[in-house]
Design goal:
Layout: H1 10-35, E1 47-52, H2 58-74, E2 80-84, H3 92-99, E3 104-108, H4 115-126, E4 132-134, H5 142-155, H6 163-168, E5 169-175, H7 181-198, E6 202-206, H8 214-223, E7 228-233, H9 240-246, E8 252-253, H10 261-284
Parallel strand pairs: 1-2, 1-3, 3-4, 5-6, 5-7, 7-8
Helix pairs in contact: 2-10, 5-7, 5-10
Length: about 280
Amino acid sequence: MTASHPPRSESDIHLDSTAHLMNSIGNRLAGQLRLVSPPVRRPAPPALVLVGHGSRDPRALETVRTLRDRVRELRPGLPVHLGHIELNEPLLPDTLTALGDAPAVLVPLLLSRGYHVKQDIPEMAAAARASTRVTAPLGPHPLLVETLYDRLLEAGWPTVPDEPTRRTSAVVLAAAGSRDPDSATDTRRTARLLADRLGVPVVPAYASAAAPTVPTAVRALAARGRHRVAIASYFTAPGRFATQCAQAAPWLASAPLGAHPAMARLILHRYDQARVTRQAELASA
């Protein structure tokens, strides 16, 4: 005798139909997923390494660290590191060694071309294991002029000087100085941009290695009837040269550029410029 099976209920039939439908949908989806390419992972952006000069003045290290933190706030997720040419830790070679094989863009916290930009930093970068790229120095650039202008206002420069004040006022742009003529060219360019912004003469002068000195520039302006002379501190951070130049001010002296928001934006601008240039080179290769 053949065993008889109990009749199937409508719920059993419904469950079988549902399972069949789900299996059919699952198989169809699996087939479609096999045709889809796996997601492409974009490579991580190269690290940004701020390259400071280094100073024995503890305020300098504090300033560049604050500037580094401000850059991190503007570009969350971007690895931002700090390395110094001398005097402060971490030194640039140590920072690059710690990065290992990770690519990096080095942004000098220097305001003009000179020996450090042309020789020291590229040589340290070339010795690193990773692929590195060194950007142009921060200056000249309108964002530096924006920073200089704000620092002068903070020091007491009139927001809207009247005509008598304008006729008797001037600014000495006090920079570190270099024997490299390109450095002086860059500083003069910044001085012209600042003069356009202020509407008064701006004379570049130097703490060392170049002429004129700050006191000489102040005397020359006084001889031209410009007795209200301000010193615009064209230094990234406080230090011996910045203090020395400020002491020569016959009227007012601004603070160094420091961790001004425009400085952080300028650093990221240099970083982005380097990345775009690199991508263009790879595309044309």
